[in-house]
Write the structure tokens for this entry.
Amino acid sequence: MIRLRGLRVSYGRTAALEVPALHIAPGEYVLLTGVSGSGKSTLLLALAGIIPELVPAHVAGEIVIGGRDARIERVAARAHHVGIVYQNPATQLFHEMVAEEIAFGPRNLGLPEDEIARRMAQTLDAVGIAHLRERAVRELSGGAQQRVAIAATLAMGPSLLLLDEPLANLDREGAQLVLEALARLHAQGVTILLAEHRLEAVAAHASRAIVLEGGRIAADGPPEEVLHRSVPPTAPGMEPILPGSPVCGSDTAPLVALAGVSAGYRGRDVLHDITLALYPGELVALVGPNGAGKTTVARLLSGILRPRRGAIRWAAGARRLPVGRRVGMLFQNPAHQLLCDTVLDEVAYGGDNLGWPRDDRLRAILDAADLWPLRHCQPQLLSVGQMQRTALAAALALAPRLLILDEPTLGQDWAHLTQLMDFLAALHWQGQTILLITHDDRLVRRYAQRVVTLQAGQVVADAPHIPQEEVRHEVVAA
């Protein structure tokens, strides 16, 4: 199905990927993993033809897919047999309604309407979003948009399916539905190459695992051998950073409080009369299924969205601050908040506007995000994980009173993620208030001081939480 020889992909002078030889047979289910920036997305984009036709890069070597020479086959032609799901679903969703999005690909293949309808029903059911068929795409949560993108790709009926972190924004139920759908496709003979950091969930289905390191293949073999070679079930240094975070008493005034708030989009409420307070120095995990309203809460707190009913009340000291200093937010899609020419300029941008010096504090933030070696790179050319860390570092540089992380696991391997979260936990210990929106139970178990659960736009649980002493270590050792 796939044959690579002497493949080298470079952006400018930097080689992002070097694969002397690789063969993937028809019908294989391959898990592709490695740390953030190791070349996973570059490999998938090159296989899909996005690189170099749509994303500028220098490509040398041979890429053959299904007997076709990829050097002469255009992206439009390759889309008939190769499907790709990107890390960021917004980059491939452009119709207003879900049904239109799913039907677009099969319609462009010239399929009859009854076959289009059959494929639409089949793929919507397969990923568990049949109830969203008549919804507007832009109103959906990031996880729901991810499932729409997957369904739209599956509806094309590809013989080779490339997926770049398809589980990153999904709750447990959504991830399970997607994995079951992929397992069925694999059983039907579809070749699957899936890049993912949530290894255990995928490894149970994959027939082969490939680890990339610095753009090169560091390991290749059965998942049980490759992923667990020299990796202990737990690792030193995984104990909670905060053995006893200060607990706010009932007499402590909230930093911010939502009182009877309802909010939504285009006349439809997503949140229904919720009441929620965040206290100074807390690290609160906001959890719940896709579509529960978690990102809507973040948008309200950051001022992007206004409530239809109810009020948002800030403590006097925070209310007087500029918005960027009151709330720093990491969006699900980091590309939406990156605008400078270099990583260093991006992280310094907010402080530059306030007249702050570029001092050692910037270096500490860049080091914590493992971005110092990339400080002169253009943010838009980084991997999604590196872009995510850049956007977070830029938000941190303004020392906001409240820091909101909306699904920070996108594009992040566990090593980089814990490095960054440990840094944030240290800031929390010094008084930083953090709202962590996540589907990753590992982060909740290790870091959260309090867990708030949303379901169908309402708070259904709000309880203190004591971080566990250990979390399973999932760093890949090649």
